[in-house]
Task: inverse folding
């Protein structure tokens, strides 16, 4: 019994160290590519500001006093910008778990190390969560310098719960998407970009999904990003209570809980296939 | 947690009729993901290429050999002969279509994770995160194998110093180092995790003579003082002759000969013996030695 316990603790220590290896490595990469980090931050901030200024420019555009609440629209767009920035980063960084290795030429080294794949993915997703949270907070702070944020009604813990549940869903979908670069060494990473762009279009980031054509609106109902946005807006703009937010949180958790094991199994199947077909080589 | 089979410490590596085909006509992807694979051809009877597909090849064709514990075992062969494919099969990066390999008694197919814990590989292309420093790359690799940062840092300084790397370069990006220096860091990374079977795929290709000598001496030292078994593929016949206890010559995926360098030199000649391994190589493969920097990563 004691020996089993000791082995269990020892295995946990090893797995924590291995997960941390990916986290630390990615942090070092971020630090070494700091110039690009500045560029991406600037680009994200300016593109976000450009969108939010549309609300501010409504009067100048139409020549009339807007019949809608400009402050509400401003907050609506800021929430869309920040949530998209956060979720798309989580999706991108998780789905690029293999693509990075291919670009750097380290795929064979990393995949022959004695690391369980879930341990590898825990390290990568931990980094994606931390990175996404920090960069989104920085952009949020910078945006607050330009616009007055009205948080008078906001239920911030409720919004955090929605975003947390949404993170789980996006991690799960990111793991499923990360299979593409395993299966298609040349085109896989490009395919994940298409998936991400589709989320951007259909999930109601800058507009309600009701304005979409019917078929796209139907698709939007399967996108976790839609639920995160609706839930966060309900919490921040309307101050919805946590009980009202469950309608958004529950499907997000369900999707995460169902998709996560499916993603892990699919990843393992794809890795086995890549080993049979000889696809674990560097590209780029 | 599954209990691991005890190691068989007498034989480091037993490869039994291992075979790997490429470009066989395949079932659709969705069936392959569910485990379906192409029907395997009879030995020596490869199918024709499917329409628009590449010609099927047996990159490694029923190769068998064994490596004793503590041996330095060389694999010689021209470009495209299947050396690197063989190393990939033993490294768990490829699944064999036929045959098996056991590392210290652990079957690759039965316990991949167990095998991974025993081996390390140095490939011809030093696979690193080029923006990261040698130390950052080494710490990453060490942690993957369960070595903590303080422990790894001490060992890394010792090994890199032993390989002649300057301390000032330890924290500079790898991309600023010469290929020779990068390859030395690759060797250091492999040694850092104390593997008992080290697979080296042309580790000295592209190195200057001084660096080649440093790496060779380090390989011998590792074998002598760390009880490691080393399998090395090389184009360098002089290196194979000087370094390897035994060598195998591979040609067109098949094992052409195996023995000590002296045995091969004695037995391969038609009228007496060859004076160099290079003569043996040309005799067996019918090819001139290729002094190529490019690996046969078929």
Result:
């Amino acid at each position: 019994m004691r020996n089993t316990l000791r082995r269990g603790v020892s295995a946990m220590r090893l797995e924590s160290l291995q997960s941390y290896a990916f986290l630390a490595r990615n942090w070092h990469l971020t630090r070494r590519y700091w110039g690009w980090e500045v560029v991406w931050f600037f680009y994200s901030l300016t593109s976000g500001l450009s969108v939010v200024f549309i609300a501010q420019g409504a009067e100048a555009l139409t020549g009339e006093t807007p019949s809608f609440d400009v402050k509400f629209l401003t907050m609506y767009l800021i929430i869309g910008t920040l949530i998209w920035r956060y979720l798309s980063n989580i999706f991108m960084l998780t789905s690029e778990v293999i693509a990075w290795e291919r670009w750097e030429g380290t795929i064979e080294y990393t995949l022959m190390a004695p690391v369980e794949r879930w341990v590898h993915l825990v390290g990568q997703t931990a980094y994606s969560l931390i990175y996404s949270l920090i960069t989104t907070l920085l952009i949020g702070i910078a945006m607050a310098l330009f616009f007055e944020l009205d948080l008078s009604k906001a239920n911030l813990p409720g919004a955090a719960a929605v975003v947390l549940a949404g993170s789980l869903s996006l991690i799960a979908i990111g793991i499923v998407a990360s299979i593409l670069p395993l299966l298609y060494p040349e085109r896989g990473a490009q395919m994940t970009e298409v998936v991400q762009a589709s989320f951007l279009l259909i999930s109601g980031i800058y507009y309600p999904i009701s304005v979409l054509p019917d078929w796209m609106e139907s698709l939007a109902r399967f996108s976790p990003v839609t639920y995160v946005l609706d839930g966060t807006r309900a919490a921040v703009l309307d101050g919805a209570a946590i009980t009202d937010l469950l309608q958004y949180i529950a499907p997000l958790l369900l999707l995460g809980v169902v998709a996560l094991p499916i993603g892990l199994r699919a990843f393992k199947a794809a890795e086995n296939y890549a080993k049979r077909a000889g696809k674990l080589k560097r590209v780029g | 947690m599954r209990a691991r089979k005890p190691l068989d410490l007498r034989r480091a590596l037993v490869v039994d009729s291992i075979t790997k085909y490429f470009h066989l006509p395949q079932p659709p992807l969705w069936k392959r993901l569910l485990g379906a694979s192409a029907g395997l051809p009879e030995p020596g009877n490869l199918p024709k290429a499917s329409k628009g597909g590449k010609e099927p090849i047996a990159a490694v064709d029923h190769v068998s050999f064994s490596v004793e514990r503590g041996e330095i075992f060389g694999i010689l062969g021209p470009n495209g002969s299947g050396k690197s494919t063989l190393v990939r099969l033993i490294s768990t990066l490829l699944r064999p279509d036929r045959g098996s390999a056991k590392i210290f008694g652990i079957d690759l197919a039965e316990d991949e994770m167990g095998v991974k814990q025993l081996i390390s590989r140095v490939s011809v292309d030093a696979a690193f995160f080029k923006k990261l420093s040698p130390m950052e790359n080494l710490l990453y690799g060490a942690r993957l194998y369960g070595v903590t940062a303080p422990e790894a840092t001490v060992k890394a300084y010792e090994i890199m110093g032993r390989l002649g790397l300057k301390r000032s370069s330890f924290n500079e990006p790898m991309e600023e180092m010469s290929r020779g220096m990068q390859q030395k860091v690759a060797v250091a990374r492999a040694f850092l995790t104390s593997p008992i079977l080290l697979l080296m795929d042309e580790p000295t290709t592209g190195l200057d003579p001084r660096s080649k000598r440093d790496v060779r001496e380090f390989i011998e030292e590792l074998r002598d003082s760390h009880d490691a078994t080393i399998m090395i593929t090389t184009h360098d016949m002089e290196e194979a002759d000087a370094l390897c206890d035994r060598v195998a010559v591979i040609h067109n995926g098949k094992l052409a000969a195996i023995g000590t360098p002296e045995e091969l030199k004695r037995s391969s000649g038609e009228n007496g013996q060859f004076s160099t391994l290079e003569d043996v190589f040309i005799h067996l493969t019918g090819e001139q030695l290729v002094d190529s920097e490019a690996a046969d990563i078929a």
Summary: Chain B touches chain A at residues 1, 20, 22, 29, 32-35, 37, 88, 91-95, 113, 116-117, 119, 121, 123, 125, 127-132, 136, 139-141, 143-146, 148, 173, 297 (CB under 8 Å). Residues 291-298 of chain B have pLDDT under 50 and may be disordered. The beta strands of chain B are 11-22, 57-68, 72-76, 98-103, 106-107, 119-122, 197-201, 229-234, 246-251, 254-259.
